[in-house]
Amino acid sequence: MHQKLTSLLIAALLSGAAHAETIRVAIGTQDTTINCATGGLLIRELKLLEKFLPREGKYKDAQYDIQWKSFTSGAPLTNEMVAGKLDLGSMADFPGSFNGAAFQKAGKQSQFITVLSGSTQGSGNGIVVPKASAVQSLAELKGKTISVPFASTAHGMLLRAVKAQGWDPERDVTIVTQAPEVAGSALQANKIEAHADFVPFAELFPHRGYARKIFDGSQAGAPTLHGSLVDTDFAKKYPEIVVAYLRAAIEAERLIAAEPEKYSELIAKVTGIEAEVNYLFHGPLGLQTRDFTWKPEYRQAVQTSIDTLRLMKRTDADLNVNSFINDQYLRTAFKQAGIDYEVRLKNYARQPLTAKDAASGKAITDYKRVAQLWVEGEPLVRSYASTEAAFGELAKLEKAGKKVRVMYAHDRNSGLKLLAEDAWYVSARKEISSFLLKEAAEAWARQNGGKVLDYNAAKSAI
Length: 462
Prior knowledge:
Elements: H1 2-19, E1 22-29, H2 41-45, H3 48-52, E2 63-70, H4 74-82, E3 88-92, H5 93-105, E4 110-119, E5 126-130, E6 145-148, H6 153-164, E7 174-177, H7 180-188, E8 194-197, H8 201-207, E9 211-216, E10 224-231, H9 232-237, H10 239-258, H11 260-271, H12 275-282, H13 296-311, H14 321-324, H15 328-336, H16 341-346, E11 371-375, E12 382-384, H17 387-399, E13 404-410, E14 417-419, E15 424-428, E16 431-435, H18 438-448, E17 451-453, H19 455-461
Parallel strand pairs: 1-2, 1-3, 6-7, 6-8
Antiparallel strand pairs: 3-10, 4-10, 5-8, 5-9, 11-12, 11-13, 13-14, 15-16, 15-17
Helix pairs in contact: 4-5, 5-13, 10-11, 10-15, 11-12
């Protein structure tokens, strides 16, 4: 009797084990594309997905096999998603649209489920030239060779920017394909006249000292984004897991908003991309906005990328943007997190700066000329109400033998956050204003009776 009972017990345990499903959750990330951090790197490093995965109902006895794989671009990530090796992945609007087309070609479907970070104006993509180049604007690149990662969001930006100049992209410029890791070496060796790229390379190359940014994607006026996609079959089978992934992304966003310096350092540790560049995007008033909601401009960015890919003959798919973008999982995640989706949808503000001027102690309320210093050995970035105040403090710090990791300034016209060392300045009416472009600085100087200065001259002027 005892032996029979033992056998029944073992059989019952084995039966239960057979019903305990192991669910693979395979996620493709782009760690070095730092504005994807809240959809990948931070979730993985902080183990946030584990915090939100469902454990009740049909998931009561489920075991999770969480797999992560990082890519340097969207195309190989898409290949693995289509092959069924990945369930979710993060990429920009152009490769994201190519993802949808590739799934369609394979007789399957993927869905764009969230934005992670982007700019309704187009900031994030940019064009750089070698540091020693005399070129100061896109208009001076006629007849030149410009490299770009083909079929990337930066490629789309470049084509729009060339068209806005009234140029023929096949006759007036030579556009060649080049990956970011190759472009860095080419810029250092002066082997390329200009390079267009996506986040973070138009800022990373200048920060490393061998390139200058001469064009920001916002000048093309075309929205851009990075976001996450899911294999529709996976989403239909495990909708609660898709929501859990989005809850983890929302939590990652909350954490980096609260402590941008800390998590900029973490991103640097994992990727090798300097924290100063990460903070340029993820800190307050950053170059892009971490905005998960599907604003009309982001929907249009996806439609534009579909149309452009078709014109480039990279795809012949007739992808319907309204069914390709699915915000229902995101809305559920927002509701579970206690966040009003409709309020966020209407909010276009950048990550706010709530700070006091580090010199005067007064609250900063006007952000037109705000500047920041990240001092070596200090965990938090210092903020200043004016560029001249920041330069004044910079001079004192350097005189005292302290090292400043980076200075940030803001374009007086657009509000664009800049690496101060590569900006142009105008000293006028006892104020110093910052500009991305030399021609913009010259125009401001003419209008306001000022003098155009480079970074070193601006430092000396104080």
